[in-house]
Design brief:
Blueprint lengths: L1 E3 L6 E3 L18 E2 L2 E2 L15 E3 L9 E3 L7 H23 L1 H8 L5 H13 L5 H15 L1 H19 L5 H4 L2 H32 L4 H29 L2 H8 L1 H5 L1 H14 L4 H8 L7 H7 L1 H12 L2 H20 L5 H29 L1 H23 L4 H28 L6 H18 L1 H12 L4 H18 L12
Antiparallel strand pairs: 1-2, 3-4, 5-6
Amino acid sequence: MSISDGVTGKTTGGGNPRVVRGNVPATAGSHRCGGSVTRLSAALPVTTTSPVRKVVLVNSASSPVVAHPPVRAKKSSIFGGLVGVFIELYDNAVYGFVAGTLAVVFFPGDEPATGVLLTFVAFAIPFFFRPLGAAVAGSWGDRFGRKRVLLGLITLMTLSTGLVGALPGYGAAGVFAPIALVVLRVLQGFAMGGEPGNGNSFLAEHAGEGRRGRVVSYANAATFIAMLLGTLFAALLNATLTQAAMESWGWRLPFLLALPMGLIGLAIRRAADESPEFTAAEVEGEVTRSPLREAFGSRETVRGMLMAVVLPLFNSSGYFILFIYMPSFMKNDMHFSTVQGLMVTGIMLAVGTFGVLYAGRLSDRVGRKKMLATSAFLMVALGFPCYWLLTQGSFLLATLGAVVMALCFSGTNGVMQVTLAELFPTRVRTVAYGVGYNVGTAIFGGAAPLVVSALIVATGSTWVPAFYLVLTSVVAGIAALRIRETAFAPLKR
């Protein structure tokens, strides 16, 4: 008799060939889980044949189960995981790129700097609702499945983003205009809070062994492409429209574009398969009724959540400083034109897209820990020299400094999300990942433009962003040295 343990593929007993990893339709004695045959009914003898491997459940009336060679996750499942992240980052990018115009439309006043500051207050507020979204949507994802929750999140995110483009300005609606803007941003914050834990866990669980870094890096690349699209759109509008036209109706177009993008994303997510890891947990009765309570009841999971707060410090600050705050900083503090500021950001994003894809693939070979620590400490070493290049008034020097910082950032950004997904077991993955990550993002990311703007006004120093980047990189680099390597182990069950 030969029995497969279903996880390692090893057999015990007689000399029958072992059961190999492959996609197998679920039956009474087997089910799909991350592309592998797991836990055949205890002590049932099995036989296999080649080239198509047939698993016969001797003591079952079921038909033979045919185990095909391993098949990679459907493209629709991969796209389904990353499409929501794309829309989320597109919205954040657009908001940052038209912040100066939004300040005039929603927060008019005699002092432009005050209007920009209030605009970034409206930008920061939703980030403090992201942990709530992570707790609620993450719990639903661990209880009812990733796919269902992702469908709801993309619907909410699309509507709340698109409706920003339909809002009246302060001149037409008075104080109700900025209030409506903040309300929609809060709804966006709730949806965005649920997206990383569900979306990136969904991708990691579909990827299979040895490919998680590569597959999840697609979502990171999608964020850069989304920001690049927002940058190019904003640059096109600023280059072709007058200031009066931009303030009148031009600023609406990037937000309204989120509506058709969201409909396409919803269709893609509907075609995706549910996560095989969640499906397996559901079949085995391992789905918990209280994911959030269980997450906080485990010392190991709480430690993982704390690491999910600290590890992304450089990731959060780097994203919001380099890509969201940078266009406003270059225009208002470095006196570049709006188009020049957007061009520098666009070049950074183009370079970063390829950087995160390479980082994800490389981390599958060398490990997550090395990638995270190396990129963080490179920013510590190069952050101030690169920032000095930004302050010289030269477009070429500013571009050079920005590109080097973007490459340092790519090493972290391309690996961060898969690392966080690997820290937690399937039972509580989306809620634990989401809560930890969003608490850190709210404090050190979403508030970054507001904090940096306020500190520049208070101190008169344009070096504040550089200090912020370097300080968060130091903390993140130290945290990276303290985590266990997760790249070469199966996902926790």
